[in-house]
Amino acid sequence: MSEHCFEPLLKRRSIRVFKDEEVPIDLVLKAIDVARYAPSAGNRQPWRFIVIRDRSRIEALAKILKHPRPLLNAKTAVLVLANKDESPVSYMVDASLAAMYFWLALHCTGLGAVWIQTLRNVEEILEFVGAPSNYVPIGLFAIGWPGEQPVAKERKHLSEIVFLERFGEALKQ
C-alpha cells in the first residue's frame, strides 16, 4: 500500500482566510486540467469551469451568496457548472466528482480553497455568469494562498458509518 497517496487527501482543509498575494492562473488551469480526469457516467464529462479573477466581479458575486465571507478576500473564484442535458441522470454527481478532483489538485499546488454552496441561488448565479438554464452551479471555490492552517476536525468512527451487507448491520473488526 502506498501511504504517500493518502497524504493530500488527509491534509486538505477548507481554507477561508487567504494571503494578499495573486494566484497564478497557470496553477488554477493545472488544477482544472487534473479535474478533467474525474470519472463521469458514460464519460460524458458534463462539467464546465468559470474562472473569475476580476475583483469587482468577485465582490458582485459575493452579494448573491448567503455565506460569502471567504470569497471577499479570495484572489480567484472558480464556479463549477453541470450540464443537465449532457448527463440527465448523473450530472450532479459527475460534476461534484470533477469539483472534488479540482479541489484536491488545488491543494497539491499549494493553493487553498473552500467550497461555497451555490444551490440556493441557481438562477442568480447562472445569470451572473451568463450560463444557459440547462446548467446547474454545483459549487463555487474561493481560492488563494492559505492565510491559515486549520486543524483537522474530529471524524465519526468507522463503526458509525460502515455496515456489513445491510443497513444497520455492524461491521465486526
TrEMBL record:
Residues 10-79 form the Nitroreductase domain. GO terms for molecular function: oxidoreductase activity. CDD domains: Nitro_FMN_reductase (cd02062). It comes from the Archaea. It holds the Pfam family Nitroreductase. Belongs to the nitroreductase family. InterPro entries: Nitroreductase (IPR029479), Nitroreductase-like (IPR000415). This is Nitroreductase. Keywords: Flavoprotein, FMN, Oxidoreductase. Its cofactor is FMN. It comes from Thermosphaera aggregans (strain DSM 11486 / M11TL).
